[in-house]
Design brief:
By secondary structure, this protein is mainly alpha-helical. 77% of the residues lie in helices and 0% in strands. The chain is elongated, with a radius of gyration of 20 Å.
C-alpha cells in the first residue's frame, strides 16, 4: 500500500513539473537551426562561432540558447564597463574622462537591461524582451556616438562596442525566436 502511495505522489509531481515546462522550447536545437538564427545577425560566422564556443550550447533548446546569448552579452558588458571605469580613473584629460564616464553610464544601463531580459526569460515573459533589447542597442549607439569624437589610443573600446553590437543582435534573434513559438 505504501508503494502505491509513493508511486502516486511521484507521478503527480512528474505531471506538475512537465506541465510547468513550456513545450515550445524543449526541443534541442540543431546546428542548422543555430546557423539559421545566426543568419539573421550582421555576422553569421561570428555569431555561430560565439555560440558554439560555449559548452552550454551542445544540448540546448531555444530558451537555453537565448539564456546563453544573454550571459555572453552580460559578460562582455560587465568587462567593458569595468574597463571604461578604469580609464576614468587613469586619465587626467577632462574631455576623455567625460567620454569614458558617459560610455560607462551607457554600459551600466545595458547591464540593467540585460538583467531585465534574463528575468523575462526566466519568467517566460518573452514578449517584453524586444523593448529591453532595443534600449540596450540604443545605449551602445550613444556610446559609439560619444566615443567617435575621441582621439585617444583607446581604439579597443570601439572594437568592444562592435563586439557587443553583435552580441546584442544575437540576444535579439534568439529572443525573437522564442516569441515565434
Amino acid at each position: 500500500m505504501a508503494d502505491c502511495g509513493t508511486s502516486f505522489v511521484f507521478i503527480l509531481v512528474s505531471i506538475v513539473f512537465m506541465s510547468m515546462t513550456p513545450t515550445s522550447t524543449c526541443q534541442k536545437l540543431t546546428d542548422t537551426e543555430i546557423k539559421h538564427l545566426c543568419s539573421k545577425t550582421s555576422n553569421v560566422g561570428g555569431c555561430y562561432k560565439l555560440l558554439k564556443s560555449d559548452h552550454r550550447t551542445v544540448n540546448v533548446d531555444a530558451r537555453g540558447l537565448a539564456e546563453v546569448s544573454v550571459d555572453l552579452a552580460s559578460n562582455k558588458a560587465n568587462k567593458t564597463h569595468s574597463l571604461l571605469n578604469s580609464f576614468v580613473k587613469a586619465t587626467h584629460d577632462s574631455r576623455l574622462k567625460n567620454i569614458y564616464k558617459l560610455c560607462s553610464s551607457n554600459y551600466n544601463d545595458v547591464i540593467r537591461d540585460l538583467k531585465a531580459i534574463k528575468n523575462f526569460l526566466l519568467s517566460g515573459a518573452y514578449k517584453n524582451i524586444p523593448s529591453q533589447v532595443k534600449d540596450a542597442s540604443e545605449e551602445i549607439k550613444q556610446c559609439k556616438k560619444v566615443y567617435s569624437g575621441a582621439t585617444s589610443d583607446r581604439a579597443h573600446i570601439k572594437k568592444k562596442n562592435q563586439e557587443f553590437e553583435l552580441l546584442i543582435s544575437i540576444v535579439e534573434v534568439t529572443s525573437n525566436n522564442l516569441n515565434k513559438n
